[in-house]
Every structure is written in structure tokens, then in C-alpha cells.
Amino acid sequence: MQSPMSLPQQRLSKDAVKVWIISELITNIIGFMILAILLYLDYRYSWKAWIGWILIGFTVFSVLSTIWSVINPFLLYKNWRYDVSEEFLQLKSGVWVEKHQLVPMTKIQSVATKQGPLLRRYGLCSLSIETMGSSHAIPALPKEVASELRNQIAHYAKIKEVES
Fold first, then answer.
1. For the chain, what is the radius of gyration of the CA atoms?
2. pLDDT tens, 37-94?
3. Distance of CA 116 to CAs 31, 90, 134, Å?
4. Shortest CA distance to 79 belongs to which of 11, 164, 2, 156?
5. What is the pLDDT of residue 5?
6. Nearby residues of 5 by Cβ (< 8 Å), 6 or more positions away
7. Out of 25, 39, 66, 157, which could bridge 108 as a Cys pair, Cβ 3.0 to 4.6 Å?
8. Is 128 helix (H, G, I), strand (E, B) or coil?
């Protein structure tokens, strides 16, 4: 009889929280700029009253969304875990709904690291794992850890790295 599989223990980089907050704030600032322009246009051209009320509703929703976008990254970081073994890639995430995925190494077709400008600024990478029917990601790993993990998964999944 096989022993039960333990929950994943590996954590993301603590800098993940900073990256997620900055990313959300950039998105929110752009949204507020668009709302400000629309509110100005509503004031300037006296659009119908209901348009103003809808814009105020969007503004209230955006303020609440901004507050949540500062809290959510801490919860995401607290709940994100991963582990790699010769048989499985385990991923556990979720703030409200906990999601625990077991990806068999035999099903993995490709594995790659990705790094955008914010991740690069903090020396982080995201790892993307593709199977025939789905894709998975481990966000915000230190660059060295992501490269090592990519190579380890490729080895376990017997993926040959294509030189470009």
C-alpha cells in the first residue's frame, strides 16, 4: 500500500507580494485615469444624469477593488505552495477556494520560464508548464530557482531542451 502524498511545502519568493501589488496599482491607476476623464466629460458636457450615477458607481467599485488589490497579494503568497518529485508536480493555491493540483510528470510536454519587466526588476521568473490538455504556472520564483526547477521538471518529464 502506498503512503498518502504530503502537501507541497515550497514557497514563492517574498518579493512576489511587491510585484503583485505594483502590478495591481498600475492597473488601478490606469482605471482611475479613465474614470477621471469620463467624470470630467460628464461634468463638461452635461450627459444624462444616469451616466453620472453609473460613473460614480464604477468609482466606488474601483476604490473597493483597489483596497482588495493591496490585501489579496499577501493572501495569495500565504497560500501558494509547490513541490516537484519524479512522479508529480504539485501545486496548491487559492485564497477563497483552495486548489490542489497533481500533474503527472509523464503528461508534461513543455516547461518554460517567463520574465516581464516587473519580475525582472526583482530578479524573479514565472515557470509555465504545459500538458496536452492544460497549462499550469508557478509565479514569482527567484530566477536561479526557476531555471533549476525548469531543468529538473524537464529531466523528470524527459523533455529535450531545444537549442534556439
1. 21
2. 999 999 999 999 999 999 999 999 999 999 999 999 999 999 999 999 999 999 999 9
3. 21, 24, 22
4. 11
5. 73
6. 88, 90, 102
7. 157
8. strand
Residue type for position 73:
P
Q: Cβ distance 102 to 121 under 8 Å?
A: no
**Cell 498600475 -> residue:** 26
Q: Is the pTM of this model over 0.70?
A: yes
Q: Distances in Å between the alpha carbon of 163 and those of 22, 107, 115, 146, 160? A: 34, 22, 19, 18, 9
Q: Which of 15, 63, 76, 72 is nearest to 35 (CA)?
A: 63
pLDDT in tens, 6-27: 889 999 999 999 999 999 999 9
- Residues forming a β-bridge with 93: 99
Other Cβ atoms less than 10 A from the Cβ of 16: the count is 21
Distance CA 12, CA 125 (A): 10
Integer Cα distance of 93 and 144 in angstroms: 22
Q: Is 135 helix (H, G, I), strand (E, B) or coil?
A: strand
Which residues fall within 8 angstroms of residue 109, CB to CB, at 6 or more apart? 130, 131, 132, 157, 159
